Structure formats: C-alpha cells, structure tokens
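pinned: reference chain
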Amino acid sequence: MAQGHMIPMVDLARLLAAAGVQVTFITTPVNTARIRPIIDRIERSALPIHFVDLRFPTAEAGLPDGCENIDLIPSRNLFKPFIEALPLLRPQLELYLSAAPPDCIIFDSMNSWAAAAAKDLEIPHLIFHGPSCFYMLCSLLLEKSQILKSIAGDFDPFLIPGLPEPVEVMKAQVTRASDAPGWEKIKERFLAAQESAHGIVINTFEELELSVLEKYKKETGKKLSSNVWSIGPLSISNADVDSLSTRGEASSTDAQWVINWLDSKAPDSVMFVCFGSLVLNPLSQLIEIGRGLEHALSSLSSLSFIWVVKEAAKSEEVEKWLSEFEKKMSVRGMIIRGWAPQVIVLTHVAVGGFMTHCGWNSVLEAVAAGVVMVTWPRYVGDQFINEKLVVDVLKVGVSVGAKVPASLVKEMSGEAQVKGEDVGKAVVRVMDGEREGEERRTRARELGEKARKAMKEGGSSFENLKEIIQFARQTKIVME
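pinned: its structure tokens
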C-alpha cells in the first residue's frame, strides 16, 4: 500500500490480462479510489481484471480513518503500526480465496503476510519486488554478511561484500527501519515469505542488470535460483496518453497542455524535476532548488524546466513564494502543483534530464525513456543504492551531492539539505552538450532502446512473462 508499489502492480495485472489470464487485483477502498481512473479505463477496455476491496483495519490498529497508504500516514510514529496492521487483512483474504482458489497469487513484498495465507491454502505464490535487482542483491548480501554490526559510525564508508563490482556506501544510507529494535517479527515474516515463495518477480530487465540478476539467483538458494523473473520496465506496458496520464493517480494538470508546452521546446532542452509521492521539501529547500534552476538557466541559454511541487497545497507560505518564482520563470519554466503525468513528460523528445529522488519506478521510467538523471536520494531503502547503480554502474546520472537520508538533516528546522549551487552544477552537467554530457546521453539512449526491445514480443521480459504463467499453471497442477 504505497504508490511506488501500487503502480507497477497495476501494470503487471494489465500485462497478465493482456496475455489471456483472468486477474483479480486485491487492495483496499482508499487505494481503489485513488486508482479509479485506471480502473475505469480497464473496465472500458474489457481486460479480464476484477478489482476486489478488503476493509482496512484502521480502527483495530489504532490508525486514523482512511490511513490506507504510506503517503497518507500523518506521523512517522505510525509507520510501524501501519505495517503491523497489514496482516490483519489475512482473514478477509483467506475467506475470498477459499471461495474461488486461483492458480497463483502474486503478492507485493510489503504484503509478506499473504505468503502464509497462500501456503495454508496450498496455492502457488510468487513474491513481487518493486525495487531494482541491484538493491535486492545488496540487501541480501548485507543480511548474509551481517557487516552492518561491525560498522561503528553511521557515516563510515564501507564496501558491500560480494558484489560483482565494488560499491561503497555508508551505514546511514542502507540501514532500514526493519533493522531497528522492535521490528524483529516483521523482518522474520518477510524472510519467511521469501523462503516459502515459489518464485520471485522483479520490475527490471535482463539487459539492464544481467550480471546482478545472475548473482542474485545464486544467492537466493537452490529452490529459487531458476525461478527469478525480470518482467520490466512495466512503465512502458501501456503507451496511450490517457493511460499514462492517470498512471498512479489522475494528473493535477491537463496532460495535453503539458505536451503542447513541451512541443514548443527544442529536443533535449528541458529538465524535469520531480521527487515522487512521498518527498516533501521544506520552504528553505524549495528556495535552494529554485536558485539552482536559475543558475542553470543563466549558464545554458537553451534550457527550460518543468518542476513538480506537491508542497504548494500544504503551505500558504510555500504557495506565496512559488507564485512569485513562477511569474519570474514564466517563459522558461512550468510549475505543476500536485501529481504530474511523469511518463508522458519523460518520453517527450524535448526532455533531456530528470532530477529524481531515485525511487525505482522513477529511475526505470527514465531508463526506458533514455533520459539522463540528476540523482537526489532522500530516504533509506533502495534510493541511495539506486543512485549508485545509476551514477557508478550504468553511468547515466550525476549526483546532486546528498550523502545522508533527509531524516538525518534538520529539514524541519529550516535547514536545506542541498544548496542551490550544487543543484545548478548538477543540472548543467547533465544538460550540457559537451563531450561528457553527450557520452552519458548516448548510454542512456542505448539503455532505452534495450528496454523497449525487452518488452516487445520475443524480448527477455516478454518471454519471462510467458514463463511465469506457464510455471504457475504447472505448479498448481502438481500441488493438486
């Protein structure tokens, strides 16, 4: 129950249905309402997808009414109670499955409790991982090596053991909430789900992470080594404008208006700035981003930008500053308040760069579009690891310079994490047409072409999807 997890799961449901499989998509009422535009389109298309709501146990878990998605949690203190509430959905799920047992269940990794329900009902089940395989491998190696226990300081650099190539991180960048005291049972449930699953589905593609996928398969153990399937990039599974503009949520602005604005710009001249569904910048940081964009505009005469600012709806002070900045930038900048049609923007020929928080959906969307990135990870989890993949391994990005999670920066007291000068320098490096920038852009375009081939008939992800369907049916027969 997070937009970054929900979006690729909907895409996966569409792909399975398009392959002729009857699909049931199970979530909760608030999440259904948030993807209602997508559901309406699916129902009009006659794809065989049935949507089912389970009542979310907010009252039983002591959560506010309607708190059914991570980005709706009003306080960090409620994150753990939210995760602990998820298994309370199990009786409803089992009741539904008992009435009409499916051939297979694919559950998001955050809903690891569903594995126990599937196991008790003797239903084949696959675990879906939304993050990159690079992140999954790093997490597995960190868990196996227990190296974090030997690292004293949060900011001491160390190499992740066992990777195909050296990657240096800090403890603060890779220590997750589940590593903290009090999370032991949640972590045990996750590991048990990984162990009981009949296979693993990952939103990536072989040509992007081939050596990583091979290493990950070996590290998962004999049972799962041959049952790890990459089926992405899921973001390019639906190409029409209406579907893309409602991917995740309905856009806060008219998609056609955005397209018309982009049509007026030269190829590779627009920097797209968007930090996902969870990141909220304080005013001090928004001002620094604005300063950075102004600096880049003064350095590159052809540069324009689109900046998505969710914070405007949450603060009158932010809206006042943003309105003034918007007037000043009206010729070369577009401000979108709220949700943006991200894939539509990224796939437009005018867009040459993407400033991102390094959530995997966003990274993979940029890769599929062949767009170079300015990387700015914010949260512990996969974001700092994804930055390493983009900048150091794939070499299609430039870091803005953020070294620690936003939670460790005094943002709420008004201090900006990254200064405008560093934002501007990173934008110029990405958008500059000099040799370094062009080489980076060439690599990005080559990856984009490989991504599109992977999803087409005969491509690696296309064939893997067929294998998943065949495996699920065969496993169901064997279990019966």
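why pinned: DSSP finds 21 helices and 14 strands in the chain. The CA atoms of residues 128 and 201 lie 5 Å apart.
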